[in-house]
Amino acid sequence: QLQLVESGGGLVQPGGSLRLSCAASGFTLRDYAIGWFRQAPGKEREGVSCISGGGGTTNYADSVKGRFTISRDNARNTVYLQMNGLKPEDTAVYYCAASRPGCTVVQGLYDYWGQGTQVTVSS
User: Fold this and answer.
1) Across the chain, how many H-helices and E-strands are there?
2) Contacts of residue 15, Cβ cutoff 8 Å, sequence gap at least 6
3) pLDDT digit string (tens) for 16-29?
4) What is the mean pLDDT of the chain?
5) What angle do CA 13, 44, 61 make, to 5 degrees?
């Protein structure tokens, strides 16, 4: 069964850190770019970060630049999103998704999606 599974979400105070993981099963992750997206209540899902299949190219939304770092371990078939300096506005459900063509803002081009993990930033 082809799937992505996110983990690592939770409740954290402003300024805190979390590391999200996106584990793939049933397919070879290195063949895909992996994007992280998030959706806050009442808002559209938005792109947060993306990493190419080989890991050589990364990009970030302006709102998270300098605070979030995306990385991948293809041997473990896992992609990570290290989130530092978390703010209340980072509160959302975070999803990872796999794109065969590469990193893109077009969400319809992502072939596989995880179920999401909740991140809540609150004091």
Assistant:
1) 0, 11
2) 85, 86
3) 999 999 999 888 88
4) 95
5) 65
Measured in whole angstroms, how far is the alpha carbon of residue 48 from the centre of its chain? 7
Coil, strand or helix at 89: helix
Contact by Cβ (8 Å): 38, 48 = yes
Q: Given this model, what pLDDT does residue 30 score?
A: 87
| 32-66 per-position pLDDT tens digit | 999 999 999 999 999 999 999 988 899 999 999 99
CA distances from 105 to 3, 86, 102 (A): 21, 23, 10
Cα end-to-end span (Å), the chain: 39
User: d(Cα 122, Cα 101) in Å, to the nearest integer?
Assistant: 37
